[in-house]
Fold these 3 entries.
Entry 1:
Amino acid sequence: MALLRAFLRTARMARNTSRLAAGLPADDEVLLDAPDERLGPVLVAAGRGDYGPAAKLLATTREAAEWENRDRYTTRLAAFARSRTEWFDDWRSAAPHDPDALLVKAELAVCRGWESPARAELLRQVGPLISAAAEADPRDPVPWRIALDHARGTSAPHAEFEQLWAEAVRRSPHHYGCHAAALKYLSAAWYGSHRECFDFAERAARDALPGSLVQALPVRAAFAYLTEGGGTAVPHWESRPAPAESSARGRLDAAADLAIAVSEHYEPADPWPAEVRNLLTYVLIRLERWQDALEQLRRIGPYATSFPWDRVSDDPLGQFLELRDGIRLEVASHLPLKLRNEDLPYPRSEHGGRASTGDH
């Protein structure tokens, strides 16, 4: 009987896996950390040594108060400057007091400090750069996101963290980057606990605007729990009694369900929620929710992101593609041997039914 079950499982996988590739891009079409249509030309220009488009892009985000875009673009430009510094050195020399150049300079310095074995000491020296970026535009929450990352690296006490958090939310109450940075500080791996991390994330999600990525913050708490010594079947968060719905597995599933709802708010193959969708896929894999994970792969489309796959592999794109195949195999192994079209786990449409091919 065991041999027969193994044979049937193999037969199901061989027959169904190719069918489950519907809606998924080919491996060579998947991109890692692909820039959006605004950032792409800027990086190309920076690669040629021209900082002008980068300066213009960040100035536009500042003038229009596009704080979420400003945060993402600053992070990507600082990452590019770590390996190609000439264009950024020219920008700083030409406009040393430019608020946008000061912001990238602060982000770059914090990133370099984090990479050093003398992290805490180097990061303490970066404090004045963050202050300069914050003073350059008092409306901007992004320097305060950088300050929250800085606080984590310098072992800042909770009182200092709370002050920085208050400054961040005063400027932008629903800024995703600031919430993600605060969540890291409150995680069990740093200066909080799993319970504190989840409480913060769930409270922020309840207060968030409809469709905001902050509503998916609990799935970041779930990721932290799953990768920082947690599991998927721990009965309670602390020794004191807790209601059944507070069990670890129940809280993890609730976080995944909320992130799925956020993902459905955006179109498939939208680069904006790509990181949240990649993170959600990791959590769904750990929870062995294979069909939900396959649906997220279809919504991700070609937009793989380094995070979270770089936390488990030195080859994040290869890891993503390998796990994508593994998810298809798991789903295929549980499908009927004679699969009908109506048995395929198609993505749901916004109205709860099967999405039409035009939706992809």
Note: Strands lie at 31-32, 303-304.
Entry 2:
Amino acid sequence: MKKILLLALFSITLMGCNDPESAAAEAAQLRAEQHPDRTYVGENNYYTMESSGDIQFTTKKDLKIMYQDFPRYFIEKAKEWPKEDLNDASSYDLPRFQFAWANSSSKDEYESGIKIWSMKTDGTDLRLVTDVTVELVNGIKNLTRSPNNRYAAWADLGGYKTVYDIKTGKVVELSISMSPLAMLWSEDSRYLYFERARDLFSRWDSVTGEVSKVDFDVRTTAVNFGGKRTTVLDFGVLVEDANTNEEINWIGVDRSLSMDERSLDVTSIDPEGRYAWGSNPSFGFFFDIEKGTVKQMTTDYTPAQILGKNAHFSALDSFAKVRIVDRVGDRVWSWRAFYYGALSGDAILYNGLANNGLWFKGSK
């Protein structure tokens, strides 16, 4: 009897050692003890909390540097990382950034490939948008997201355009030949307008899958909102009726300036098409589209490559360093969100009306 009891206990002990859940729990506990500064997400990925601070930020305006802890992400296995989930309301309580990032420099083709990611404007809730990868040699030049958050679209350096349906996982290739990069969503998220060849514009119907010709120009710095299509062009802002394409207003910069002085090299527009920004080496221009005015500045301004609702917040679109400005409070946050990997192209803002357009909870 004693032998049988000992064998039974030995058997139970072995079963416990071979239990995958127990082994995983023990491994997680060991990691926590060895690296108390890390928060693990899966076995191979984690983030640490790092303070923002004195990262160089080129501006012609004095801004108060803010010190605050933000996540810095270390991701070796993207397949273990949470994907963006349209049904998770907690992901959409703040505006979000979308960007292209190759999370690892390993020889693994998937991990070293460029993938589309997103995170909240406060640096939290990093999500993998799609498993679709793009080789570094092709790169990502332009990104966009539908107003209902369902569709992510991108163009590579050759002009090939791809749409990913987050709800179904379906991938649609829109262009099979080299073409320009401009893309713009309709207000109801049904149509993606894009430039399929020089000065030839089309729309993709997300319901029928059909591609048809349109008779208006598509630019990347543009927004469809409130029945209007507002576009930042080379020398000003054009407002049109989104249904009839009739011009509603044109807000141009000072025509007495030289071509170089009035050309808008860096441009952005807020999610509702109420405000826009343009700048060049000589001037900055702030457009109040509702009032039909433009303010020209030579000093005391901050560039805005991404512009939030009501122009309250802005950001630079290169996410090697995240640089966010509170344009109302004259404050700046600068931090490194990623420890390694390679970024491609420019980041964009989407879900921009969440939290009344404020990029941090508790902001006013």
Note: Residues 1-34 form one domain.
Entry 3:
Amino acid sequence: MTNNNSNYKYVIAVSGFILMATTFSIINSVSTILIAPVTHARGFTISEYSFLFTINAITISICSPVIGTLLNKVNIKIIMTLSSLLAGGGYILYGFANSIFNFYLIGIIVSIGVCGLTTIPISTMISDWFEPHKKGSIMGIVFAGIGTGTFFWMQFVSRILENYNYRLVYLLLGSVVLVVSLIISLFIARRPSHAYIKAKELGNDYDDNLNNKNLNFKEISQTPSFWSFTIGLFLMGISFAGIKQHIQSYLSILGYPLNFNANIGSILAVVGLIANIIGGILFDKFKTRKVLTGLGIITIISIIFLLIANKPIFAYLFAIFYGMTMCISSIWPAFGVSKIFSDDNYSVIFGIANMFMTIGASIGPFLSGLIADTSYGYKTAWLIYLVITVTYYSLFIKTTK
């Protein structure tokens, strides 16, 4: 690899950070602050609107293995450019939607775009361009873009909503997604030539590589570590999405004003940003089991604070502690695949793993909304997620033994 090509990996890392700070943050994080404005304006119930997150996650779970396989067959620029049009254009369409079914249909379009534009292609490029001992740190920095973007966009959106309706938010943010992602997809995104050579040597057809355990799902699924890892991702998806997508709604029910809720979201984002950077370094420098154990303890404490968040001090403590664990959902799936399995055809294996996590994420938001609409309320959901959290951290720790 020439020196120029070697340096280009940092351009890839910066562009990945920007995509996570714009496209991913806007579509996956900032959308939560729109729950109350949209449901109030359109007369949707919380569970009806929350089902949109479920549809998004189901769509991503279906598309993940497909995108992972296509990355070894089709030029990444083509995949990401088409995905940019779907993600950005679709998000703009939210501003014109009137019925809940309009939101559901648009959600499918946006989710396909996000799947082909963010986590899987970005993680694949990082795995292709960077050395094994740097992957955790680089992934941490790149995925810190989620916190950076969320902090900025939360404040931006809350101020717009004070004077304008939610439709303008969708139009403005959708335009940002479209422009930024298209520029990066067309002019920056690419995999090193050796990645395509390796894919060709291994074979481009997923079904034709039944003798390669790195590609054969049947072979992979026979290992205990595979099931511990993927079931853990499935449960993490339920808990993480179920909590994260309903924090703003929960705080509104507790009686907090919109600016307070936005501040909590911003604190989560800032702490999450720092946690992603530090978490990536920790995964590179220390034993994985110790890092997971520490994050597990902090996550449990944060959910306890969420249960008693009717007092502002505990709401702030929840934001700080939960933000410290953000790296587990952003870094661990991508880093865990590299740590547990071979880097050969990383995109295919990660696509399958990501499918399990997003299936779980499709359940969490709807489950939270469903429970919130009953007499049991959000606190019952948080208790359920507390048990699930203990379970998935135990599975991850078991996987690393």
Note: Confidence is low (pLDDT under 50) at residues 202-215.
